[in-house]
Amino acid sequence: MQSLRWPLLFGAVVGVLIFSLFASFAFHGVAAWTIGLVYIGYDSVLLAFMVVSSRIAVRREERLRKEEKPIAPLLVNGKRPTLTVLICARNERLVLPACLAALRAQTEPADEIIVLDDGSTDPMIAWLTSEYGLTFESQEANTFGTSGQWPALRVLCKPNSGKADSLNLGWKMAAGEIVVTLDADTDVEPGAMAAIREGFAADTALGIAGGVLVPVCRRSSWAGFFQFFQTFEYARGFLWRLTFMQYDMLLLISGAFAAYRRTVLESSGGFDTTSWVEDYELTHRIYRKAFESGQRVTVKTLSGARGTTDAPASIQTFLNQRRRWFAGFIATHFKYHDMVANARYGAVGSYMLCLKTLDLLLPVYALAAAVMLIAILSIHHSLDSFIVKLIVIKLVYDLILHAYSIVLYQRWLGITFSRKLCIQSLGATLTEPFVFQIMRQLGAVLGWLAFLRRKIDWMPQRRVTVASVTAN
């Protein structure tokens, strides 16, 4: 029976989609927009669940902060876990200086920092050599450069082989008990590494932890547009992770700022070099191994580990990123489909992966609903009054819950309440459905096409030239 659970669930989602599309042509009036009714219904129920659950989780976090005990008694031999930071970088001369500066400014610096140069062709290595006085062991490939000015820093120069392969090389040679992966365009706050150490020391079952990231968009005439919408998208997304964390079913940890217990990486085999989303795939594999071996592993987002990361600032880079993310999500879900609706894998199998099965086609529902609404309006030059009222009610509903989500987000992080941010979230909620959400849904549909073609055309977020580096 287990082998039929996932096909039946996925088949039901596909069946409802087909029926909804058929209704658009077979019926008139309200029934012609069945696909929109289905999408609004599901989205509204999901949003209510996330907000209510987030409120419970935030109140729990606030209570734990008040009752927080000193971390020292939980440490092994009175010491915090040793920590290695891995930065996989290819042509990152423009952003790497800020990343390294943030690491040097830590209240509890990393014991070791390894920059994995994945075949860069820009002046990144020349800058590192000049700035930190690197001395290379030899001129051969895959050799370390060590810094006379910053003993914790090492640089591995290697031919281009991709991020996952570079990270696998890095963690295998890392000396730290905790391995942190950072994107070169991620700048962490001064207390981030201390929060990571404390998180792993306090929970011996913690296998993976992620930080809280704020998007930063630069170098584009569209930067303000994407910064505005992605700020609230990220805030809600990280708040939802807190919700999933309290139910022990958090699957998504951003590789841009993630931390792994080294023993967990060793037992799982590290990152999958064939995956389009190696961080997301690895979490599935770690959960699977833990449940099948009877071991307990926890996955958390640590509110004290914070930073900023570069986010797409143009339509092309945004769609390319979302296409890759969604294609990787689909491929990973299909790979681990036997865990869906399987109580053997705890809440991850019983609930989270069932939800992810519905999410496979949710963007298709949403995009189709928008297209059908436009088609109905174009043909009949008006909308049924019930549909108009429903859309208005949905907007008001989203306004209230999205604004409250931002309040909860600020409470969770323990930051000063910002009325301005809440007001801005109202503007984002009002305009998202007509612009940003359509772009997100289009990116997901492109992800389906990429998955079916089994092909992703990789595109760097920054196109770096020697001239541009010199100019900066």
Task: Provide the succession of SSEs.
Answer: HHEHEHEEEHEEHEHEHHEHHHHHHH
Question: Can you tell me the residue ranges where pLDDT is under 50 for at least 5 consecutive residues?
Answer: 465-472
What proportion of the residues is helical, as a percent range?
55-70%
Major sheet strand order: 3-4-5-2-1-6-9-8-10-7
Quick one: biggest sheet?
A: 10 strands, mixed
The CATH H-level homologous superfamily of the largest domain: Spore Coat Polysaccharide Biosynthesis Protein SpsA, Chain A
- Counting structural domains, the number is 2
Strand content: 5-15%
Q: What's the mean pLDDT score? A: 91
**Alpha carbon gap, first and last residue:** 61 Å
Radius of gyration of CA atoms, rounded to a whole number: 23 Å
User: Which fold does the CATH topology of the largest domain refer to?
Assistant: Spore Coat Polysaccharide Biosynthesis Protein SpsA, Chain A
Structure summary, number of beta strands: 10
Broad structural category? alpha/beta
CATH architecture of the largest domain: Alpha-Beta Complex
